[in-house]
Backbone:
């Protein structure tokens, strides 16, 4: 007899595979769990349901509809061919518990992606497991912690983080039990070298840096910083969220970093901002490779295999092997782009500088230097006229432009962080410039229209606090 469930105190009897196959499911469930009445779900035809979701989709803004300059998110165009290839049955139907022997194609793809990312970042070893940038940071910080534990340096409890860092940096370090030490930025928007020197002592485990940083500026003192940190026996962590600015021009290994995460869902083709899935592979220098999560994906010259035998591994950080479909898309993108990755970064930087120069007369530019792939302006001047950054962001929606990232980084008041990416044409950039200048004129001449915005979107101006506390979740009004 084939039984699949053990008898439990809740179950009346043992459930048989034969019962399930013959649809006799009632015998598998305790009486108390059996539904007596219909639950009153709306009864709709497939066509009605389809129209409902199409209507909801039409209300949504997306990269297919218009310009999406969301700073720090790299909302580039993601080729549809990567989606198509990721959905091929050989990939999408493969079960993660299948043997290495049966998964050679998938393992080969992961191995070759690791190799490509090692080449691009300059790192010596890689894991593809983390599911996002923040998860990569957590993985990296766990590696830092274990590295010093194995060395017996239990005093290394501090992690230094610049004041313009993304909030996930201190959060990840804190989750690993580190104390967060903030280092100030100087007047050029760079890590203040003198302030940093004063913070370095024998208790510092690591510094976490984003380069280019969240102001879109390249940290010119990065080599000096890595020298100082290494001389102190500390490690350097590279937040690769802004990697789209530097692909092929330089890499974190050349800058002296020991651990790197990449956001595949920003730089390498998976759309960012849809709420996932993402991938945040982590690369490390040679001395840290024995700390990577298990399993690593390896190749012995004949077969690709999962290696669970890693000396000081921090263990598993994700069920199975990461978000495989995202890995496929990144691999396809890298193969398609080849050395053009370098051009993608160059265009991303050119586009950002073009916008910055055209906008800086009407909006304040607190750090007026050549930028990398993004820049941060401020609506401080407009605030004095009675209009906030939030109002400007809402008004942009009336002109079919997604707002940029706002109120981040925290060190810029009324911040707007603009990242055009390499994908956009000059016409699109010029249109955005005209819209931003027009909004500045409206503030000078017809302030109310900006305060009332958005007026042309399906959902008009909302009470943000109430909308978050009392969301309207009914399926039809
Ligand atoms: C600079 C920076 N670091 C880290 C992250 C976290 O990445 P993720 O959203 O993939 O967790 C972000 C996200 O936007 C970021 O901009």
Residues:
């Amino acid at each position: 007899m084939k039984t699949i469930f053990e008898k439990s105190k809740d179950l009346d009897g043992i459930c048989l595979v034969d019962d399930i196959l013959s649809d006799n499911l009632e015998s598998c469930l305790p009486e108390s769990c059996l539904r007596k009445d219909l639950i009153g779900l709306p009864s709709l035809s497939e066509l009605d349901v389809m129209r409902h979701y199409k209507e909801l989709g039409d209300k949504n803004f997306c990269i297919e509809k218009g310009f999406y300059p969301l700073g720090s998110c790299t909302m580039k165009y993601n080729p549809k061919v990567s989606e198509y290839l990721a959905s091929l049955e050989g990939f999408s139907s493969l079960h993660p518990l299948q043997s290495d022997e049966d998964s050679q194609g998938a393992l080969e793809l992961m191995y070759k992606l690791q190799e490509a990312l090692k080449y691009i970042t300059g790192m010596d070893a890689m894991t593809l497991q983390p599911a996002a940038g923040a998860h990569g940071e957590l993985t990296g910080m766990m590696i830092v912690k274990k590295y010093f534990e194995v060395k017996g340096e239990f005093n290394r409890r501090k992690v230094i983080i610049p004041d313009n860092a993304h909030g996930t940096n201190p959060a990840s370090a804190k989750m690993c039990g580190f104390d967060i030490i903030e280092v100030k930025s100087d007047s050029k928007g760079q890590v203040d070298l003198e302030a940093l020197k004063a913070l370095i002592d024998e208790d510092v485990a690591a510094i976490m840096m984003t380069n280019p940083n969240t102001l879109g500026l390249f940290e010119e003192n990065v080599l000096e910083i890595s020298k100082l940190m290494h001389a102190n026996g500390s490690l350097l962590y590279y937040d690769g969220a802004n990697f789209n600015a530097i692909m092929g021009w330089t890499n974190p290994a050349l800058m002296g970093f020991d651990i790197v995460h990449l956001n595949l869902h920003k730089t390498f083709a998976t759309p960012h901002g849809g709420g996932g899935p993402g991938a945040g592979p982590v690369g490390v220098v040679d001395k840290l490779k024995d700390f990577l999560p298990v399993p690593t994906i390896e190749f012995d010259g004949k077969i690709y295999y999962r290696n669970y035998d890693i000396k000081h591994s921090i263990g598993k950080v994700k069920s199975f092997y990461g978000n495989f479909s995202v890995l496929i898309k990144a691999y396809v993108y890298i193969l398609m782009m080849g050395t053009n990755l370098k051009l993608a970064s160059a265009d991303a930087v050119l586009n950002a500088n073009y916008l910055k120069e055209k906008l800086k007369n009407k909006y304040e530019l607190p750090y007026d230097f050549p930028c990398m792939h993004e820049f941060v302006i401020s609506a401080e001047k407009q605030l004095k006229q009675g209009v906030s950054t939030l109002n400007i962001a809402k008004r942009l929606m009336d002109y079919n432009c997604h707002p940029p990232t706002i109120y981040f980084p925290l060190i810029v008041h009324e911040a707007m962080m603009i990242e055009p990416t390499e994908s956009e044409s000059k016409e699109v950039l010029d249109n955005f410039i005209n819209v931003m200048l027009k909004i500045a004129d409206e503030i000078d001449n017809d302030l109310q229209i900006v305060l009332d915005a958005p007026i042309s979107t399906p959902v008009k101006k909302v009470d943000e606090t109430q909308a978050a506390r009392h969301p309207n979740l009914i399926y039809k009004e």
Remarks:
- The longest helix spans residues 340-359.
- Residues 1-13 have pLDDT under 50 and may be disordered.
- The radius of gyration is 26 Å.
